[in-house]
Specification:
Bound molecules: nicotinamide-adenine-dinucleotide
Number of strands: 12
CATH class of the largest domain: Alpha Beta
Mean pLDDT: 96
Number of domains: 2
């Protein structure tokens, strides 16, 4: 069976790009490993009076292009290797959208679904006390990720400010707007992905206003993609959506705003009036122009890739396509907009939040959208040009762009 250790996968992806780029051995070895990693044991008093000890991590993968940046996950399966892999992917993500940040990630092995709000607050504050010396706007800046929220970011920022006795809103991003969060963070991931689809349509000759689209996964990323696709691309026909309970389809089009409302009210897409049921697997094989995987990893594999008909696949989810499927889709002529480029809108607006916090002046929503559009469009064009010139599939091309940028920064600093 293939090794599914995510850090090994991240290293293999880098190896492929290093080979294609002819990267020297020292730089390649340096980029295969985190520069720094921290492990903590955090004792927390629970509501029943007993103390529980949590295992926690922070990985600063590479800081050649700037302070490291990346989310904090609270998950029962969190391990040092998942955190290392996610920190590596953050490094390539920040580099592909050309923001002056490195990559980092944090994690706590815990099950927040079994914790009360007061226990979560104590864990958040204790994590910050453990890691505070390694963080800061010029060092490393966390953000929300799986099972961590703007409220958790608020507690952590507050603890950091108590430790330092002064204001430091930029130490963490994804905060509520009332205490230094940015406008436009909520829909930034889907918005960035739709900007990439718009640019890809220009290159492939697809008319986005007439294109059909489908979405797998109907949470934050999927719901915003449904409405923003129509809004930004001036039309398009949404023919199917799904969530963990199953999917629905309607050939002549589903109203995106209506199905978002239905999902928010009922907690499902199943049963949306006028639609017929469709499984998650069949949805991926529908004959639509644009497919948005926005749920889980590993859903497009060598088994179903030959049946995929979409011309454009915009990966809002992390890791939906396996390496073998990438090759098959490339040969078939489907254009994959790879996850660490297509879903980089979120970290880009987090970076804008950090910038606004640093000069204590806040932008309007329009400014956020204009700046995000510019970053995403530039990223798409850099990756697409490399894909054409090097005859590499889009994910490999994205790696080539990012690794070249990070390697250049390492060399200029005299590290390798
Ligand atoms: P979410 O929890 O809000 O939504 C996930 C959705 O996927 C839910 O609708 C859920 O029902 C659905 N789902 C779960 N299992 C499914 C299955 N087997 N088949 C079909 N649907 C299923 O999460 P999100 O924030 O929208 O994130 C979705 C993906 O996008 C994840 O891979 C995440 O890592 C990635 N992502 C999100 C952001 C962001 O800013 N939200 C940023 C970068 C990457």
């Amino acid at each position: 069976m293939a090794d599914l250790n995510p850090f090994k996968i991240a290293q293999q992806q880098l190896d492929e790009a290093a080979k294609k780029l002819g990267l020297d051995a020292a730089t390649h070895e340096f980029l295969r490993w985190p520069q720094r990693e921290f492990r903590f044991t955090i004792p927390v008093k629970m509501d029943n009076g007993r103390t529980r000890v949590f295992h926690a991590y922070r990985v600063q993968y590479n800081s050649a292009r700037g302070p490291t940046k990346g989310g904090l996950r609270w998950h029962p399966d969190e391990t040092i290797d998942t955190v290392r892999a996610l920190a590596a992917w953050m490094t390539w993500k920040c580099a592909v959208v050309n923001i002056p940040l490195g990559g980092g990630k944090g994690g706590v092995t815990c099950n927040p679904k079994e914790m009360t709000e007061t226990e979560k607050e104590r864990l958040a504050r204790a994590y910050m006390r453990a890691v505070a010396r390694q963080l800061g706007v010029h060092r490393d800046v966390p953000a929300p990720d799986v099972y961590t929220t703007p409220q958790i970011m608020a507690w952590m920022m507050d603890e950091f400010e108590i430790i330092h006795g002064e204001s430091h809103p930029g130490v963490i991003t994804g905060k509520p707007i009332a205490i230094g969060g940015s406008q436009g963070r909520g829909d930034a991931t889907a918005r960035g992905g739709v900007y990439c689809v718009r640019e890809a349509c220009k290159k492939t000759g697809l008319d986005p206003s007439k294109a059909t689209y489908a979405i797998q996964g109907f949470g934050n990323a999927g719901q915003y993609a449904a409405t923003l696709h129509k809004e930004i691309l001036g039309g398009g026909r949404l023919v199917a959506v799904s969530d963990s309970r199953g999917g629905v389809m309607k050939k002549d089009g589903i109203d995106p705003a209506e199905i978002v409302r239905y999902k928010l009210e009922s907690g499902k897409v199943e049963g949306f009036p006028g639609t017929t049921p469709i499984s998650n697997e069949d949805l991926l094989e529908l004959d639509v122009d644009v497919m948005y995987p926005a749920a889980l990893e590993g859903v497009i594999t060598e088994r179903n890739a030959p049946n995929i008909k979409s011309k454009l696949i915009c990966e809002l989810a992390n890791g939906p396509t396996t390496p073998a499927a990438d090759e098959i889709l490339h040969k078939k002529g489907s254009l994959v907009l790879p996850d660490f480029m297509a879903n980089a809108g979120g970290v880009t607006v987090s970076y804008f939040e950090q910038v606004q916090n640093t000069y204590n002046y806040y932008w309007g929503l329009e400014d956020v959208h204009t700046q995000l559009d510019r970053r995403m469009t530039d990223a798409f064009n850099a990756v697409y040009d490399t894909h054409k010139k090097a005859n590499a599939h889009m994910r490999l091309a994205a790696y080539m762009v990012s690794v070249t940028r990070v390697a250049e920064a390492c060399k200029l600093r005299g590290w390798v």
